[in-house]
Specification:
The structure holds two protein chains of two kinds. By secondary structure, chain A is mostly helical. Chain A is built from 15 helices and no strands. Chain A has a single domain, classed as Formate dehydrogenase/DMSO reductase fold (Up-down Bundle). In chain A, helix 4 packs antiparallel against helix 14 and helix 10 crosses helix 11. By secondary structure, chain B is of the alpha+beta class. In chain B, strands 2-3-1-4 form a four-stranded antiparallel sheet. In chain B, helix 2 packs antiparallel against helix 3. Classes of the chains: A mainly alpha, B alpha+beta. Chains A and B meet through helix 1, helix 5, helix 7 and helix 15 of A and strand 2, helix 2 and helix 3 of B.
Chain lengths: ~450, ~160
């Protein structure tokens, strides 16, 4: 067997048939991964990557401040389309976040050996995806300073939330999901934080990581409880993420709006979550393995596995699109048929067909093995999926609301400048957050990689 | 009482040494390793299960109480006790309890946070979270323990006060 081919800068390209790690030395892996947060390896490209996303985060802050000053009238929403970009982006982001948990928890349970190199990236993606998602419902409230009215608490106003409404279920689902994701992420970090504490040479870093590691030192007792607990937490996170995205689907399905009132929405939304999650993880893996030079541990094997999953979830989404049309015509309700026909041929048809193109048709290229390790094509396909998923959310939210039951209430919707700035702003926050996080915590789960590397040897 | 820490190059070397140390009569032994040394039992899954069930039951009861007694709302004539609608929130609260119990329980059972322990003073332990597999022996006879560790192929042996 020949060794990995490296170009003149010592970088390897992903190839078919790659093992899960090209270098099996634990010491080298630990040294390389822990060196990134200690800034012992200078790399100017990092700051070039951070700057534009930091600027976009500033744009987000600006748009939020102006929104709080002027109110939701600065957005494009009006009757009949009262849910605009805020809800589109909310669903889009929470789907991206869900994909990360899915990779990290479900493929831990299946003992997939490729999962260990990318689960930290996937979990970090989940955190910032959930943050971006969580912003929108509050911005959309109109009077965001009353956001705590969502929570059922004893009050003197005779105000109380409606426990039979999926919107309240969603509040609890997102609350649980955000708290659980943070805890799962932090719990998974503990051994690596201990590694960082013990490798730190400067006093400040020793105190910082020492405080975060909380005294984890890898004793056999700690490992015994840790190993068992981590497995159980993963087994809980996997159904949790399905429940969260099902409830997001029920937010729509619970309403009597044509185009939403469908029993297939919960699984349909989960399929979409997998698709956009896998695409985002692929984009992050492609970017970060170059930026942090992790090519030896994120190989063609990872590209192959993730692309196959992207392809599978794309087929699932295609099935859901088909069943959407089938059940509407089989059901035969006039308003649903008018709404659906308008989706296919009406004003917003290009957006619907864009979603079909990017989510179902283009990913079929991944049937070809060599495309699965072609970084340029995989990047383009994944970007297409992310845009396509946004189109799908646009079709669901705007396409359905603009053709309600009463023709006298029909209307059109366009996002305003502030809608677009807020959307771009959360993209900035998402990437900015991840880039900052990987300068503080190891970008790869070192303790889990040790097992993978040992099995490779 | 002293703590003698020996560092080994890999898991196999440490496990061999561990077996032979036990044969030689050393009992108060703890290992410090960069990845889990093996499978084992823990009461935490039971704690997580109980917390999850209690959370779900509490969540269900809470919604029943709020919609039935505390704030009964007439929404289109629907029954006050409309239990299928309570399932999602009960599930979410159950999960929240279970995961919180798992993480908090892990810290409690290990008496964490414990930012310093006597064994931390051993220089060998600095690499126990990276690439050394360490054995720590609590003993009144440190010389015997040192000799035993050297004999069983330790790369480094340190002695610190307990």
């Amino acid at each position: 067997m020949t060794g990995p081919t490296r170009d003149d800068r010592g970088i390897t390209r992903p190839r078919l048939g790659d093992p899960v790690a090209l270098s099996t030395s634990n010491a080298a892996m630990t040294e390389h991964v822990s060196a990134v947060p200690f800034r012992s390896q200078p790399f100017a490209r990092y700051w070039l990557a951070v700057a534009p996303f930091g600027a976009l985060t500033a744009v987000l802050l600006g748009s939020i401040l102006y929104l709080f000053y002027a109110g939701v009238g600065i957005w494009g929403i009006d009757w009949p389309v009262v849910w605009g970009f805020a809800l589109i982006n909310y669903v889009w982001w929470i789907a991206i976040a869900s994909g990360g948990t899915f990779i990290s928890a479900l493929f831990y349970l299946t003992r997939s050996e490729w999962r260990n190199a990318i689960n930290r990236i996937a979990e970090t993606m989940t955190l910032f995806g959930a943050v971006c998602a969580g912003i929108y419902p509050i911005l959309h409230l109109g009077r965001p300073w009353f956001f705590y009215w969502l929570f059922p608490y004893p009050n003197t106003m005779d105000l109380y939330p409606q426990f039979r409404s999926p919107l309240l279920w969603d509040f609890f689902a997102i609350l649980t999901y955000v708290i659980s994701s943070v805890l799962f992420w932090y719990f998974g970090l503990l051994p690596d934080l201990a590694t960082m504490r013990d490798r730190a040479t400067k006093r400040g870093w020793q105190i910082f990581y020492g405080a975060l590691a909380l005294g984890f030192r890898g004793s056999s007792t700690q490992w015994r409880h840790y190993h068992v607990t981590y497995g159980v937490l993963a087994a809980i996170m996997a159904p949790l993420v399905c429940s969260v995205h099902s409830i997001v689907g029920l937010d729509f399905a619970g309403a009597a709006t044509p185009g939403w009132h469908s029993t297939q929405f919960p699984p349909f939304f989960i399929f979409g979550a997998f698709l956009s999650g896998f695409a985002t993880v692929l984009l992050l893996v492609i970017a970060l393995r170059r930026l942090l030079r992790l090519q030896d541990w994120m190989t063609g094997r990872h590209f192959d596995a993730l692309c196959k999953l992207l392809l599978t979830s794309s087929l699932f989404v295609g099935y859901a699109y088909t069943m959407d049309g089938f059940s509407i015509f089989y059901g035969g309700e006039k308003a649903e048929i008018v709404n659906y026909t308008d989706r296919l041929f009406g004003y917003y048809a290009p957006i619907y067909w864009g979603a079909v193109l990017f989510n179902v048709i283009v990913p079929q290229l991944l049937w070809i093995r060599t495309i699965r390790v072609n970084q340029v094509l995989v990047t383009l396909i994944s970007l297409g999926v992310i845009v396509g998923m946004w189109f799908e959310r646009y079709t669901i939210v705007v396409g359905s609301l603009h053709r309600p039951h009463l023709p006298s209430a029909w209307g059109l919707y366009h996002g305003s400048l502030w809608d677009w700035l807020t959307l771009m702003g959360t993209v900035g926050l998402f990437v900015f957050g991840i880039l900052l996080a990987i300068r503080i915590v190891p970008a790869m789960s070192m303790f889990e990689m040790r097992d993978t590397l040992e099995q490779q040897r | 009482m002293r703590i003698v820490v020996g560092a080994f190059a890999d898991k196999a070397a440490m496990q061999t040494a561990l077996a032979r140390l036990r044969e030689a009569g050393f009992n108060a032994i703890e290992t410090y390793t960069p990845s889990p040394p093996g499978e084992g039992h823990s009461p935490l899954p039971l704690v997580i299960l109980v917390a999850g069930l209690v959370g779900a039951a509490l969540g269900f009861w809470w919604q029943t109480h709020e919609t039935g007694q505390a704030y009964p709302l007439d929404i289109g004539g629907r029954a006050h006790f409309s239990w299928p609608a309570y399932v999602p929130i009960a599930f979410e609260i159950g999960v929240l309890f279970a995961i919180t119990a798992g993480v908090v329980g892990f810290f409690l059972i290990n008496r964490m946070p414990q930012l310093w322990a006597p064994v931390d003073e051993a220089p060998a332990l600095r690499r126990a979270t990276s690439d050394r597999w360490c054995i720590a022996i609590h003993t009144e006879a440190p010389d015997q323990a040192r000799h035993a560790l050297w004999r069983f192929a330790a790369l480094q042996v340190d002695e610190v006060p307990a």
